[in-house]
């Protein structure tokens, strides 16, 4: 059993997860890394909204799992990937909660991208 704290979203720290209206396209190193019409928008407290893209809609041939890990008491343990486009490597640009806490179970099998480590995260109209 883990001794890490598990916190529930609530009025003082709300988390909402909704389907993203439109198509999410992520580029890095001049290549399309993700292209999805099935992304989720996670809005956590006062932080900027984050797009969680199904891993199935990501070009996994560009990903390299790293040893970096982190923990969020609201979401769980995160693992990281670098994006290697051949000419460019964006280190720890992607994170994933492989076993998210129950309150955010919808983000399982989804990944998110650091905006400052990729070229763009675009939400295009449907």
From TrEMBL:
It comes from the Bacteria. Pfam families: NTP_transf_9. This is DUF427 domain-containing protein. Residues 24-116 form the DUF427 domain.
């Amino acid at each position: 059993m883990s001794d890490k704290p598990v916190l529930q979203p609530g009025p003082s720290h709300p988390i909402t997860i909704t389907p993203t209206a439109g198509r999410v396209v992520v580029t890095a190193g001049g290549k399309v890394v993700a292209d999805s019409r099935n992304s989720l928008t996670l809005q956590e407290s006062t932080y900027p909204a984050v797009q969680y893209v199904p891993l199935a809609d990501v070009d996994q041939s560009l990903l390299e799992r790293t040893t970096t890990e982190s923990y969020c008491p609201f979401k769980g343990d995160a693992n990281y990937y670098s994006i290697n486009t051949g000419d460019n490597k964006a280190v720890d640009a992607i994170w994933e909660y492989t076993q998210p806490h129950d309150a955010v179970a919808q983000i399982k099998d989804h990944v998110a991208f650091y905006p400052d480590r990729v070229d763009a995260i675009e939400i295009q109209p449907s």
